[in-house]
């Protein structure tokens, strides 16, 4: 059986196009990116130190996004600063960063459901302390308790949302219970 050269050449010229279209039909998933990454896997309990998560993003940004995307994690580290966010849904943003400031920071966004009802968070002007103010139903202050302070070591549990301007953003955060 003899094949004509024209159909054979046509078939061979279409093979690269088929490979390209197959790549577009099946995009690379975050899991595939993580498997291709050199990063260590996330521990089963989801607890990581600030140095580890910041180091992951500094070393392999794509692999780190694959590793942490859609995961609820607990980050342990020292508070660098506290901010009162401008968004109505957020009550506090806690920035965790190493002392050198060379690695990416973790910004943990606390939403209204993360603090008790009839409470608010007051942040000092210099961003060094946050106070939890509890009120009765009439708005009278019942108690003012220190909540967080710069330099304090904390464990914050939240969902990885994105990498934004070099910062690792966690949302729906809460203070993790001490073990």
Overall SS class: alpha+beta
The CATH class designation is: Mainly Beta
Give the overall pLDDT as a whole number. 83
Judging from the principal axes of the Cα atoms, what is the shape? elongated
Strand arrangement in the largest pleated sheet: 2-3-4-9-8
What is the H level of CATH, i.e. the homologous superfamily?
A: Nucleic acid-binding proteins
Q: How many β-strand stretches?
A: 9
Largest sheet, strands/sense/barrel: 5 strands, mixed, barrel
Low-confidence stretches: 17-26
Order of helices and strands, N to C? Answer: HHEHHEEEEEEEE
DSSP strand (E) fraction?
A: 35-45%
Helicity range of the residues? 25-40%
CATH architecture: Beta Barrel
Please tally the helical runs, counting DSSP H or I stretches of 4 or more residues: 4
Rg value:
24 Å
What's the N-to-C terminus distance?
A: 76 Å
Task: Describe the structure in your own words.
26% of the residues lie in helices and 39% in strands. It has 179 residues and is α+β, with helices and mostly antiparallel strands. The protein has one domain (28-174): Nucleic acid-binding proteins (OB fold (Dihydrolipoamide Acetyltransferase, E2P), Beta Barrel). A hairpin with a 2-residue loop joins strand 8 and strand 9. Helix 3 (50-59) crosses helix 4. The radius of gyration is 24 Å and the shape is elongated. The chain starts with a helix and ends with a strand.
